[in-house]
Amino acid sequence: MKNFKSIAIALLVAVTTLSATAQEKKINTAKSNIAWVGKKVTGQHSGTVSFKDGALTYKSNKLVGGTFTIDMNSIAVTDLKAGEGKEKLEGHLKAEDFFGTDKFATSKIVFTAVKLKATNVYTVTADLTIKGITKPVTFDLTVAKNTATTKFNIDRTKYDIKYGSKSFFEGIGDKAIYDDFEVIVNLQF
Q1: Would you say residue 170 has pLDDT above 90?
Q2: Which of 62, 54, 56, 67 is nearest to 19 (CA)?
Q3: What is the pLDDT of residue 41?
Q4: Angle at 92 (CA atoms; ends 29, 186), nearest 5 degrees
Q5: pLDDT at position 19, please?
Q6: Chain centroid to CA 108: how far?
Q7: Count of the separate structural domains present in the chain
Q8: Which residues of 16-28 are buried (b: 16+ CB within 10 A; e: fewer)?
Q9: Domain housing 78
Q10: CATH number for the domain that contains residue 135
Q11: pLDDT tens, 84-134?
Q12: Could you tell me which residues come within 8 angstroms of residue 115 by beta carbon, excluding any fewer than 6 positions away?
C-alpha cells in the first residue's frame, strides 16, 4: 500500500510538472501560408509568401508565445499570369527598393505579449523584423486544435520600403502605392 501511495504521488507530481512546462506546436510549413494584398490608387495585387519555420508555445493549454521565420525569396504574385507581368512584379518585390531579398532572405516575427481576449482568441503583440528593421505589431489570433488564423495590416514604410509611397514622394498621382499592405495568415500544425 505504501508503494502504491508513493507511485501515485510521483505520478501526480510528474503530471503537474508536465502541464506547467511550456510546450511547442511546430507549424506544418507545407500547409501553412501567408497571403498578402497590396493596394495602389489604380488597383491592387495579391500573392503569397511561405514560412521557413515556426511554432506556437503553450503553457497549461494557453497560448504564451510564438516565433516564425518567413522565406522572403518565396514571395509570389497570384493575381497575374506568367508572361503577363507576374515575373516582373515578383522581381521588383524582391529588389532592394522593396524587400531586398538578396540581403534580407528572411523576415521574422516573435511574440512579446499574449493576452486572452475571448474563447480561443488571443491579442498578440510581436516584434516583426523586415529588412533588418524590427517594429512592434499587434493582432488578434484565433486558435483551434490544429490551426491558427489572423489578418492584419503592416505599414511597409516603417521597414524602409518607400517605393511609390505618397508619404515620401510628392506628385506621383495615380502611381501611388498605399503604405499599408494586408496579410492573412493561416497556420496548420
Answers
A1: no
A2: 62
A3: 84
A4: 25
A5: 47
A6: 8
A7: 1
A8: eeeeeeeeebebe
A9: 21-188
A10: 2.40.128.110
A11: 999 999 999 999 999 999 999 999 999 999 999 999 999 999 999 999 999
A12: 122, 123
